[in-house]
Amino acid sequence: MNIDQQAEALISCWSCKGPCPQASAFCHTCGAVQPPGQADHFTRLGLDVSFEIDPGVLDSFYFNLQRGLHPDRFATRTPKEKVLSQAQATAINDAYETLKEPLKRADYLVHLKGMGVFPEGCNLVNDQTLLMESIELREALAEAETRHDVEVIAARAADDIATCIRQLSELFAADDIEGACRLTTRLKYLQKLAEEARAQKAKMN
Amino acid sequence: MAYSDKLLDHYENPRNVGAMDKDDNNVGTGLVGAPACGDVMKLQIMVSEDGIIEDAKFKTFGCGSAIASSSLVTEWVKGKTVDEAAMIKNTEIAQELALPPVKIHCSVLAEDAIKAAVSDYKAKKAEKTEAAE
Q: Residue B113: its chain A contacts at CB < 8 A?
C-alpha cells in the first residue's frame, strides 16, 4: 500500500462497525475514538505528505485534535475509550513533534520515501565535501576569540540553515530523495554548528 | 553511569591533537562523520618510507567518547605499519576505554577514521608509483 492509499483506506469502527478512514482519530459515523493504527505522521494530522508545511495549519490541526482527546472529555467514558484516547494523544504528539521541526521532518520524509538518512551505526557519512565544510566551520568556531567572531559564524550558520531548508523543499518537490537525503545530513551538521555557537556565546557572557 | 578513568584521561588530556599537511605525500588523512550526532573526526598519519607510522594527529568535534576514541587510536598506531593500523577494531577501542553501549558508535567512528587515513595514504602512494612509471 502506498502512502496515499494508506490515507484513504477504510477500516471498520470498533464501536458502530461503520466504515472509518484508517488515519482518523474519530469515527466519522458515531464519533468514537479509534486506535492509532499505522498512519504516517502527515496523514495522522490531516496534512498532505509534503515537506512544505504551513506551521499555522500544523498547529491548528494539532491543537484541534488534542482538544478532542483531552482527558476531561473521557472522564465518564468506558475504560476502552480512555485507553484509546491516550494512545491517540501520544501518537498525535509524536507526529507533531516530528513534523514541526524541519530537520526531523526532512529525516522522517526521507525515511517515508524509502531511504535512511541516519542509519544504525550512524558512521556512514562519506561525503568528503560536507565533512570538510563541517570541520572547517567547527575549527573556525573553536578558534573564535571574541563574541563578534562567534556571532559572525552563528549568522552564517543561520543563513546556511535557511538556504538548506529552501533547497530541501525544492528537492522534495522534485522527488529527488537522494539529494534530499544528502541535504538532510548537511542540515544536521549546520544545526549542530549553530548549537555549538550558541553554547560558546553563552560561555563568553 | 560513570565513565572509566582511561576515558576521562583521554578526554581531559587528549594526546596528539593537531593537524598535518594533507597535501604531503607521506601523510594520510581520514575524515569521517557520525551524522546522528553531528560529530566530525579528522585523523592523520605520517608514514615513513618503509611503511611505518611515525606520527599521528587528530582533531575531533564531538562528544567526550569520540574525542577519547580518536586520541587513543593516535597513540596506538604510532610505530605500527599501515596494514597493522588498518586492522584496529572498534571493539578493542571500546574495551580499552570501557565505553558504555550507547557510545560504541564513537569507537566505530575512530576505526573508520584510521581506515580512511590508511586508504588515503595508499591511494597517494599508488598515484606516485604510477606517475614514476
A: none
The string of pLDDT tens digits covering residues B15-31 is: 999 999 999 999 999 99
3-class SS at A196? helix
The answer to whether residue B101 neighbours chain A at the CB level (below 8 Å) is no
CB distance B61–A118 less than 8 Å? no
Show which of residues 36-55 on chain B sit within 8 Å of chain A, judged by CB atoms.
Answer: 36-38, 40, 42
Distance, in Å, from the CA atom of B118 to the CA atom of A161, rounded to the nearest integer, reads 34
ipTM: 0.83
Catalogue all structural domains in chain A, each as residue range(s) with its CATH number.
3-100 (1.10.287.110), 117-203 (1.20.1280.20)
**Order of all β-strands in the sheet with B27-34:** B27-34, B39-47, B53-61
Q: How far is residue A110's CA from residue B116's CA, in Å, rounded to a whole number?
A: 27
Is A42's pLDDT higher than 50? yes
Catalytic positions of B are 37, 106
Cα distances from B82 to residues B17, B85, B121, in angstroms, run 20, 5, 9
- First-to-last alpha carbon distance for chain A, in angstroms, is 55
DSSP-derived secondary structure for B31-52: EEEETTTTEEEEEEEEE-TTSB
Asked if residue A6 lies in contact with residue A39, where contact means CB atoms within 8 angstroms, the answer is yes
For residue B52, report the phi and psi dihedrals to the nearest 5 degrees.
-100, 140
pTM of structure: 0.83
Please answer whether residues A194 and A161 qualify as being in contact, where contact means their C-beta atoms are separated by less than 8 angstroms.
yes
